[in-house]
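#struct-help
A.M.: can someone run this one for me? Single chain, 175 residues.
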Amino acid sequence: MVIRSNAPNPTAVNPAFAISDSYKQGIEAGVLGAATIAVWFFLVDMVSGHSLFYTPNVLGTVLFRGSAGLDRPDALAVSFETVLVYTWVHGLVFCAIGGIAAKMLELAEQDVNAGFGILLLFVIFEFGFVGAALIFAEPVLRALTWSSVLIGNLLASAVMAGYFWRHHGSLKISP
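D.P.: on it. C-alpha cells below:
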C-alpha cells in the first residue's frame, strides 16, 4: 500500500524547513555514531575483562581531570558521574560532527565537485584524529589500544555514512 500526500513540499514553501531537516539528519546521524562507539567499547570492555564502562570512565577522567590519574588505569574506580557526563559530551560532539556532515552533503547535492572534497576531508579527519591521539593522548592509548579506537571510529563513520546514504540517495559515487 502506497500512501501519497497532496500536501505541498514543505521545503518548497519554506526554505527554513530544509535547514532544520538538514540539522535533524545531522543530530540523528550523530546519535547513531556516538551510540555505535559506545556499544563497541562496551563490548570491548566486556571481552577484555575490564569493568563495565571502563573506556568512558578512562576517557572522562582524562577529559575532566587530566592524565595524571592514568598511571594505573586498571586501578581507576569507575565513577558513574564521570561516565554519564563524558557520554553526554561525546554525544554532543558527535551531533555537531553529524550537523557539519549533513550541511556538507547538502552542498554536495548542489555541486557535484564538492563531493570529492568532502570525501578527502573525511579521510584527513580520520587520519588526523588517529595521529593526534597517538601524539597527544599517549596515556589514553596505553589504557585503550589504538586499534580499538580506530575500529570504533570506522564503525561509527560507517553507520553515519549509511544513514546519510539512505537520506541522500541522489548522491552518486563515480570515478
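A.M.: thanks! The two ends are 38 Å apart (CA to CA).
D.P.: also worth noting: Residues 15-48 form the longest helix (34 residues).
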